[in-house]
Structure formats: structure tokens, C-alpha cells
Amino acid sequence: MSAAAMNYRVGIDIGGTFTDFALLKGGEVILHKNLSTPQDRSLGVMQGLATLAAKEGLELGSFLGSCEAIVHGTTVADNTLIEMNGALTGLITTEGFRDEVEYRRGFKEDIWDVRLEPPPQITPRRRRLTVPERVLADGSVHVALDEEAVRHACRQLKKQGIESLAVSFLFAFVNNAHERRVREIAREELPGVTISLSHEVLPRAPEYDRTSTTVANAYVAPRVIAYLDRLVSRLKDGGYRNQLMVMQASGGVMTVDYIDGSPIRVLASGPAGGVVGSAHVGKAKGCPNLLCVDMGGTSYDMSLVTGGSAPVEAGWNMHHRNLIGVPMVKVETLGAGGGSICHVNNGVLEVGPRSAGSEPGPITYGRGGTEPTVTDALVMLGILSTGEGFAGGSFRLQKAGVEEAFAKISAEMGNAASTAGAEAAAFDCWRVVNANMSQGVRRTTAGKGLDPKELVMLAYGGNGPAFAGVQAEDLGINRVLVPKASPTFSALGTLVANPAIDEERSYIARVDALDLGRLRKLWLELVSRAEKYFTDGAFAHDRVVAHYQINMRYPGQNFALTFDIAPNARLNDLSFIDDAIGERALALFNARHMAEYNHIREGELPEVTGVRLASHVVTPSPVVASGFTAKAGEAAPSGKRRANLGQGFAETPIYVGATLAPGHSIAGPAIIEESFTTIVVYPGWVARIDDAGDYELVKG
User: Fold this and answer.
1) Does residue 3 surpass a pLDDT of 80?
2) Is there a shared CATH topology between the 84-223 domain and the 269-335+453-493 domain?
3) CA distance 5 to 23
4) Torsion-angle region of 393 (φ positive above 0: left; ψ -120 to 50: alpha; else: beta)
5) Domain 269-335+453-493 has what CATH class?
6) 133-160 pLDDT tens trace
7) What is the mean pLDDT of the chain?
């Protein structure tokens, strides 16, 4: 098949330092990375696509015209919340609930730190205004909406120059008439302002969750929508004829039109892609329970895959100190990446959470960075090469300035400002960042009642494989998987993800007193929305799989548990709604509660808090081979380099990944250099290459 006749699929993930690409060409996966372009991240995307086109011997227009799908994970929403540079946002809410979003249910990240400041407010009190109105829990109007008060509030917010408006009224998820009327008035009084309504962003109780999510949505919406519009326009001008698909926090992808309705759904979409890809690879390799670790240029992400699937939670999801209630793949993040800055604080060496990013980046990038980073430490320790070939040959690392920076760190710690002192400081940086990551894993697994020793580690990201072996040893894990595509694994994960819509509606009732008509009406509403957007995306309805779910809790519990009441069903098949649904729901809830909390409350009836529909379209995924059927053999090193792999400097064998084949094994200490990542085989470990060309590290 000629290149021009090829149907390509491209997965893209934008990180703080690199933009990653995974090109699926038949059964072949081609990887690429280039530096992100913070001033306009769509430029970095187009640059990478042009490079992929050149690799295929095509002009950009011909290449994009041959792409049947481009799937994109973006960090625009995350970066906006991290940097707090979103739209100037106002809030209109029910009279008496002005400070709901600031009370935060009394939540504090560290209850013992009396000096911990509250998070910076997206909507300071002067931009949180209230109006008389009140809808009761049954949807009846107790106090009519005061439209003049709404106009007055809009005019006050206009004087403050707001760019985005959040509207969150009490029980708007039951009766949304007041919120819809506010939108009509706001369009008259605040032309050009983005408007987010709580019943559209998160149509469920409680008030804080809904208001916080709506405010965050309003804050990021203008930047996310503007970015996606720019990218869609550039792709269209470049020759792309299909719809851009965007990764969601829930682990599914969907069209830009769907995302525009609630842009907060793209928060943490990049990490979600990596977890979805991990579940896919782990299942193929017979490892359904995984500890997934992703160390990139800016952050270190940890997640768990159990039973071959990435768990999705729709509830108390705190991201960047804001509660985001939409369904999200659970990922814990630390400020520990290759660009994390090493510094001395009162005589103590600390690493991160500040990052050098891609501009200026680590010192070794030669782009003006002056503060030493983890990447600089890896260069100082000989783990990363200053030869040609870094990041696929896109640029070369340099050592100039690195030794001086670590010598300064050594002096600040009261040691010698010499070469030996610089090497010792770099090794301390390596130890500290590794300890930070290992401790983060322990917190994550302990919170789920899991022992890391029972899991297989899957390491990815540009820097993940450099630390995986030593972290695994710290945690008692004796098996590590490193996919050959690990440096762009989140981008590859977007190609694994299915088009999906995951939404819910509130409905509060005792499990023994369910209104079947009400249940049917709510699920039909969710079905109607799914059908609309799947049709708009040109997805066949006969390929849609629906999971009808229920949220339940015991009276007085803060959080509900979600479980399938009708899994793997047809999208519009509601035949499961019958007189016995309450009994089935009770049995399923008790089983779920026992699994999660190891007890049930005998004789106490739980209550339903909502219904949920998680639907997806079954689409082709990259095929992952497994097994070790190739003839075993020792690989030959390409040379040696002085490196410190935790036991002092020594001449260490260097292997080039492109020369290795299935069946090869490499005993540590050794370093394997792939195009976009470096795999460290620590002393006492052995790396084996399986039939897919992926690496498996096992404790010798």
C-alpha cells in the first residue's frame, strides 16, 4: 500500500515540556516528540504533524487528508488552574449561598498545618453576587426569579470586566428554568461573555460540588474553547477533513462540539490517556492489576488499574485545590518531573514542585535555563547521554553549566564546591526525587488498601523508565513493564480510548420506594443526549455499548458508591427497569460497599442519589503482542559510559534500543537508550524484550 493510500490515526498529548505524537500506520506505531510551544500550543501540534508527514514522504496536506482520526489530549485546562491565569470569572447564585464555594465543606488539604492558606479564589467575594430565587427539592418554585436583580448583578459584574459567568442556583438540576432565564438576560447585559450553567455542567447535588465545578468550568472555558477552535481551524486549513476528537478526564474521547458544552471535562485528559493505554497493554500481557507511573518533564502521575480497567470516579475529585465533580480517571500527581528544580531550603535539599518546563527548560537543554533540574542531575550522573540522539535527534543535551549549578547546590549544603561535590549533589537530587515519588506511591496504594508488592509496575513517560527499577525495589515490586512506546504513551492511549459519554442526573429516594417512571425519564434524557452527540460524530448506534449505573449511599454518608445496574446493554434498552430493580440495586450496593469498606449496615436501607449512563462506541485499538517465543540471547552493548546507578560511579554498558530484538536479555547494571527515553537496568535486575519489542524488567 502506498503512503498516499494509507489511512493514518494520530494520537497527540501536550505536556508541560514536550508534545507527544503516536502515529498508527496499519499495525505499526511511529513515535515523535517535539518541544511544546506555551505561547500557542497548537503551533507545536502542527509542527509535530509536519514532521510526521515528512517521515512518511508526504506534504502536510496529503498526510492530513489521509488521516482518518486525530485524537488529542490537552493540558490547557490543567495549566490554567495551575497558573491561575484563566478568564475573569463572576458567579450569580441563590440569595444566601454567596459563600458556598468558599466554605468547601470545611475541607482542608492538611488539617494539621495552621499556616496553610486557603486556595486562591477563582471568584473573589466581590464577584460572587446573589439574587432572590428559590426552587425546592421537588422542583417547585418557592421564590420566583427576580429578573431586575439579575440585570443589576450583570451590570455590576460588567463594571468589573468579567469575561466568563457561572450561574448556580439551588436545585437547578431538578428545575433549570431560572438558570436558563439568567442566561437569556446575561446575553443581553453581558455580550461576548462565556456563560456556564450548573445544570449543564454538573446536574446533581450537593451544592458545593456543583458550584465549584461550574465556577472552574467558567474559568477555563474561554481558554480551552479558543485553543480547540484555533487547532481545528489550523487542521482544516492544513487539509484534515474529519472531526478532531478530544480526550476526556473520564478516559473516553469525544468531538469538540461535545467538549465545548462543558470544557472542564478535558481536565487531566493527558494522564487519563496514559492510564487507558496501561489498562490495554496490561490486559494483553496478562497483568490486569497495575501500578501505573508516568514521569514526564513537569510531573509524576500515579494511578491504579484493577481487573484490567481504569477506574473512573465522579465525585470528590480535587484538582489543583478545586473540586471537580465530573467523571475522572483517578490520577494522583506530584511535582516531580525531569524539569523539576533542585534547590536548597534552609540547608535541606528539595526537588520540585517548581519546574523549568520547556522554556527555558533544564540547563542541559541550552535554552537559557540556570537552575539545576532532575534532567541535569541525570546528565551529571551519566544516566543521560550528551551525545546525539536525545528526543529522537531533535536536539542534543549539553553539559556546560550543569556542573557549576550542582557545585553551587553543594556549597549551599555546606559541602565542597568541586566536581566531586557537584556529583554528590546531583546524586542527592536523584535520591530525593526518587524518595518523593516512592512515598507518593505508598500514599496512593495505602488509600486504596493495596500492597504495592501485589502489583506489576508499568512505567512510561520520557523519564519514567529511568527511575522505574529503583522505585520498584523500594516498593517491593519485582516486575516492571516498559512499553517501547512509553515515551509517548499518553498519546498512544488516546488511540486506545473509545468515543464515550458519561453523564448523570440526581434522583434522591429510598431504595425501597423508587419511582420507576422517574427513573425511566432520567435515563431517557441521558440516552437522548448520547444519541445526539454520537450521531453528530457519525458513530453507528449499533456499536454503542451502554452501562446503566446507580449512585447509592447509606443515609448520612457523605459520598455515594456507583455500580452497574445494567452493564453492556444497548443504548436505548430500558427493559431492566422493573418492579424488582430496587431489590437488585440493594444487593449490588451491599456487594460494592463490602468490597470498598469491608462492612455493610445490616437492617439499614440505603438511598439512591442519582442515575448515570456511561456509554461508549467500540472502535479498533492498536494490537499488543505478548509472550517470549523468540529465541533467547544476550545482547551486545554498543559501548560504555561512566555512570552512577545508585552504587557509585562505574563504567556501565550502554545498549541502543534500535539494535535490540525480541528474545534479547540485558543484565544490570546497564543503560538502554531508546529514541525518546532511557531505560535503566539497575544492579540485580534483568531486562527482557518480549515478542512486541516491549521491555520487562525482573528482579534477578
Assistant:
1) no
2) no
3) 15
4) left
5) alpha beta
6) 999 999 999 999 999 999 999 999 999 9
7) 91
pLDDT at position 212 is 97
In angstroms, the CA 315 to CA 325 distance is 5
CA pair distance 249, 605, nearest whole angstrom: 33
pLDDT digits (tens, 9 = 90+) for 627-637: 888 788 888 89
For residue 680, the Cα-to-chain-centroid distance in whole angstroms is 25
Rounded distance, CA 165 to CA 534, Å?
Answer: 29
What is the grid cell recorded at 226? 479558543
Provide the grid cell at 175. 428545575
Percentage of residues of the chain with pLDDT beyond 90: 68
pLDDT at 490: 86
Alpha-carbon distance values, 472 to 205, 292, 535, 671 (Å):
41, 11, 46, 17
The pTM (predicted TM-score) of the whole model is 0.85
Quote the CA–CA distance of 565 and 561 in Å, as a whole number: 12
CATH number of 84-223: 3.40.50
Dihedral class, residue 240 (left if φ above 0, else alpha if ψ from -120 to 50, else beta): beta
User: d(Cα 273, Cα 309) in Å, to the nearest integer?
Assistant: 12
- Residue 117, C-beta contacts closer than 8 angstroms, at least 6 positions apart: none
User: Which residue reads 445496574 in cell numbers?
Assistant: 565
Distance separating alpha carbons of residues 138 and 135, to the nearest angstrom: 8
CA dihedral 584, 589, 595, 600 (to 10 degrees): -110
Mean pLDDT to the nearest integer, 282-294: 92
Quick check: 676 and 31 in contact, CB under 8 A?
yes
Binned at pLDDT 50, 70 and 90, residue 4 comes out as very low
Fold category of 3-80+226-266 in CATH: Nucleotidyltransferase; domain 5 (3.30.420)
Taking the C-alpha atoms of residue 64 and residue 242, their distance in angstroms, rounded to an integer, is 9
Write the pLDDT tens digit of every residue in 363-402: 998 888 899 999 999 999 999 988 765 555 556 888 899 9
Domain positions in the chain are: 3-80+226-266, 84-223, 269-335+453-493, 340-432, 500-617, 633-699
Q: How does strand 500-510 pair with strand 544-553?
A: unpaired
The answer regarding whether domain 500-617 maps to CATH 2.60.40 reads no
Tell me, what's the pLDDT at 1? 37
Residue 79 is predicted with a pLDDT of 80
For residue 161, give the C-alpha cell: 470586566
Q: Which residues contact 637 (CB under 8 A, 6 or more apart)?
A: 653, 654, 655, 670
